[in-house]
């Protein structure tokens, strides 16, 4: 099983698109998008914030790749505090809403 553990990405505050993009490269998320099965994404207790810019840098292209929130969250299974999971869903929605902007950024 493949796991992305936010606890290993720094934190407890995850901010900035460049930081998310750097994490995307380091974790080879592009390859994980095509990997078979489910990828677990663990958000540890004590996480203070995952802002939309960081999420969009890390997962924005993936959400667009999958074409829908449902498909994205079927492949990437997020586990953690409900407040963080709720935010992640809002960020994924934003990625789809602003996908033209993301491609240019």
Written description of the protein model:
The protein is of the alpha/beta class and 105 residues long. The protein has one domain. The protein is globular and about 30 Å long. Helix 1 (17-27) packs across helix 3 (52-66) and helix 3 crosses helix 5. The mean pLDDT is 91. The strands form 2 sheets. The chain has a 3-stranded parallel sheet. The chain has 6 helices and 5 strands; from the N terminus they run E-E-H-H-E-E-H-H-E-H-H.
Q: Which sequence of SSEs, written as H and E, runs from N to C?
A: EEHHEEHHEHH
Q: Mean pLDDT, rounded to whole units?
A: 91
Can you give the helix content as a percent range? Answer: 55-70%
The tally of helices reads 6
First and last CA, distance: 32 Å
SSE class: alpha/beta
Counting structural domains, the number is: 1
Overall 3D form: globular
Strands side by side in the biggest sheet:
1-3-5
Beta fraction: 15-25%
Any chance you could write out the topology, listing elements then pairs?
Elements: E1 2-5, E2 13-14, H1 17-27, H2 29-34, E3 39-42, E4 49-50, H3 52-66, H4 69-75, E5 76-79, H5 82-97, H6 99-104
Helix pairs in contact: 1-3, 3-5
